[in-house]
Write a structure and sequence with these properties.
Layout (H helix, E strand, L loop, with lengths): L2 H13 L7 E4 L3 H15 L5 E4 L2 H10 L12 E6 L3 E2 L5 E2 L6 H9 L1 E9 L12 E5 L4 H15 L4 E4 L15 E6 L6 H9 L4 E4 L1 E2 L5 E6 L2 E6 L3
Parallel strand pairs: 1-2, 1-3, 3-6, 6-12
Antiparallel strand pairs: 4-5, 5-11, 7-9, 7-10, 8-9, 12-13
Helix pairs in contact: 1-2, 2-3
Bound molecules: ribose-5-phosphate (R5P).
Ribose-5-phosphate binds next to helix 2 and helix 4.
Amino acid sequence: MNAEEMKRSAAARAAELVRDGMRLGLGTGSTARHFVAIVGEKVRAGLKVVCVPTSEATRMQAEAEGIPLTTLDETPALDLTVDGADELDDSLRLIKGGGGALLREKIVAAASRRMVVIADSSKRVDVLGRFPLPIEVNPFGLRATQEAIAQVLARRWPSASLTLRRGADGNPFVTDGGHYILDAALQRIEEPEALAGELVAIPGVVEHGLFLGLASGAIIATEQGLVELGELG
Ligand SMILES: O=C[C@H](O)[C@H](O)[C@H](O)COP(=O)(O)O
């Protein structure tokens, strides 16, 4: 199986969790994209769901698929969110935000009774941190916020690098919320809870890509088949 087939198989298993009448959160990224496509197929076959997309990209895909959409203002509590991840460990702690959608993804996951992660086996790690941690910041005061973050990181990662994410045009990447992203290359995050607490205490930090205590289950596609972690049902 190639990577896309693995992503599709994890997404297909997650789609089996979807029931008529559910309120769903739709994740963002190349893995979640498969899930949205399968939900679209099911909707066209008669499935009744309402969905909240976690990004403008997912909203556009879902609209094209004919999936009925709602908002967290209309529907503040969701039954299930299915989303990808950039990394996950065996305690279902995640790094997300490689595609820049972390803020909406975290709001939607937190509004959901269950969050199930779908991923191929390359995303599973023993210790989070190989993937640079995305930190979403307000453009106002960027330099001051960046220095405050660097000070926090330097206590445990003296050689950490913090890089402003840029788009293909060389300009700063702008999130759906109008913010910038700083990517922190840390390699190993032994105590993600401690780091998360320190990051959210910095004015100017809007959100970070550590998803802790949010995922209830995971479906990981491997060459040998699907591996399930946590609770799916
Ligand atoms: O901002 C993007 C999201 O957090 C994605 O869920 C994450 O980057 C994983 O994306 P992919 O499935 O494309 O690896």
